[in-house]
Amino acid sequence: MSARQRALNRQRSQRNSIILLVIGASLVLLALAAFLSLPRAQAELQQNEFSAIPVAVNFPAPNVQLTDLNGQAVSLSDFQGNVILYNAWATWCPPCKQEMPTLQAYYDAHKDQGFVIVAIADGQPLEEVQPFVQDYRLTFPVWPDPQYRATKTFRINSLPTSFVIDREGTVRLTWTGAISRAMLEEYITPLLGE
C-alpha cells in the first residue's frame, strides 16, 4: 500500500471517528432532553387527567343530618346560602383517594366565595375516617356515615359520587367518578358567581 493510500485511509478513519463522535454526542443530548421533559409530561398529564363529566339535574337537596369528626350534630341545611359539593367517598376507594388533593386545592381556592365541600365517608366510622383526614390534611367538613344514612337518602350506588347544590338548595349537577380540577373550574366556578 502506498503512502498516499495510507494517508487517505487515515483521513477517512479520522472523518469516521468525528462523525461517530458527533452522532454519539447528539444521542446523549437527545436522551438528556427526553429525560428533562419527563416532569413536564407528567405535569401535563396531571393537568389533563381523566375526569368524570357531570350530569345536569334539578331536584331539591335532601337535608342529610349526621355527626361531624368532633361528634357535633350537623346537616346540609347548616350550609344553606353556599354552593355545596356533596362528595360521597370511602378511605378504601382508589379514585376517592385520587381526587381528595384536587378537592382540597379547589376548596382552598374558592372557600371565600361561599363554596364548601361536605365529604361523607360512606359506611365508615370515625376511627377509620379520622386518620385519613389527617394524612390528607383535609380542612373541609368530613362526616362519617357508618349506617349509610346519607347514601340511602341520596340513593348512591357508586363511589365517589358528588352532587353540586346551589345557593337555593337545588341539586344542579351530579358526578360519578373522580373529578379533575378542570371539571371543577368549568362547572362549579360559574355557580359561585350566581
Largest sheet: 6 strands, mixed
Number of strands: 8
Q: Could you give the order of strands across the largest sheet? A: 1-8-7-4-5-6
The first-level CATH class name of the largest domain: Alpha Beta
Task: List the domain count as a whole number.
Answer: 2
Counting DSSP H or I runs of 4 or more residues, the number of helices is 6
User: Helix share of residues?
Assistant: 40-55%
Uncertain runs: 38-48
Q: List the helices and strands in order.
A: HEEEEHEHEHEEHH
Relative strand content:
15-25%
Radius of gyration: 28 Å
CATH architecture of the largest domain: 3-Layer(aba) Sandwich
N-end to C-end Cα span: 91 Å
CATH superfamily of the largest domain: Glutaredoxin
User: Overall 3D geometry?
Assistant: elongated
CATH topology of the largest domain: Glutaredoxin
Sheet/helix structural class = alpha/beta
Overall pLDDT, averaged?
Answer: 84
